[in-house]
């Protein structure tokens, strides 16, 4: 049973959004080709879904500046611009993404005082989103992961899939993903590779 996980392909992380990833919209046509390929038994997507005033927002902390390290619930936390607020256009999946073909949209980041990069659980690892249970119930044995951003939500989703679903085979689709910084992307890819995640491109997936 093969599944595709599309991580946070939302307006907020594309050009014109509140937290744009460079060339974030370029993943959409690649993701659509993967969706249409017939290679997957199941297609799921994650959606950042923050309440207003979320604790990861710099605006929620006096004198904090976006993209500096701060603290949230006693742990180090990157301070982000307000983004992907529930019910806003910024939080919607990219309009050109073939979302009608997605079997499940897993929302995350709803707890006001804990961030959630991974599609599988909060950053403190105490609260699961339920996605791993869903995939296991469906009998998923192979999971391909891609989306936005490689150096944050994609990486943590891929690593958590490995940890929370013993025996699953995980691949990262590089050209269907974009990251915030080149250095961050390179480090994320090396970390994923070191944990046994295969690094592939969409051409290999489509040809396989």
Automatic annotation (TrEMBL):
Q: In which pathway does it act?
A: Cofactor biosynthesis; nicotinate biosynthesis; nicotinate from nicotinamide: step 1/1
Checking SUPFAM superfamilies in the record gives:
Isochorismatase-like hydrolases
> What Gene3D superfamilies does this protein's entry cite?
Isochorismatase-like
Give the keywords, sorted. Hydrolase, Metal-binding, Pyridine nucleotide biosynthesis
**Entry-linked NCBIfam families:** PRK11609.1 (NF008623)
Q: Which family does it belong to?
A: Belongs to the isochorismatase family.
Listed name of the protein: nicotinamidase
């Amino acid at each position: 049973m093969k599944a595709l996980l599309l991580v946070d392909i939302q307006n907020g992380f594309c050009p014109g959004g509140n937290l744009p990833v460079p060339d974030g919209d370029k993943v959409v046509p690649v993701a659509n080709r993967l969706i249409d390929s017939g290679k997957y038994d199941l297609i799921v997507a994650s959606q950042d879904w923050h309440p207003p005033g979320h604790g990861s927002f710099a605006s929620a902390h006096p004198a904090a500046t976006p993209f500096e390290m701060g603290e949230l619930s006693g742990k180090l936390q990157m301070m982000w611009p307000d983004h992907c607020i529930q019910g806003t256009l910024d939080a919607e999946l990219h309009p050109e993404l073939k979302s009608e073909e997605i079997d499940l949209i897993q929302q995350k980041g709803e707890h006001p005082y804990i961030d959630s990069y991974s599609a599988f659980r909060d950053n403190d690892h105490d609260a699961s989103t339920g996605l791993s249970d869903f995939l296991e119930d469906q009998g998923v044995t192979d999971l391909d992961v891609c989306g936005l951003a490689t150096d944050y939500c994609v990486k943590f989703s891929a690593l958590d899939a490995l940890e929370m679903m013993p025996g699953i085979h995980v691949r990262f689709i590089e050209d269907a993903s974009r990251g915030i910084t080149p250095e961050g992307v390179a480090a994320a890819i090396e970390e994923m590779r070191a944990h046994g995640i295969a690094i592939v491109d969409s051409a290999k997936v489509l040809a396989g």
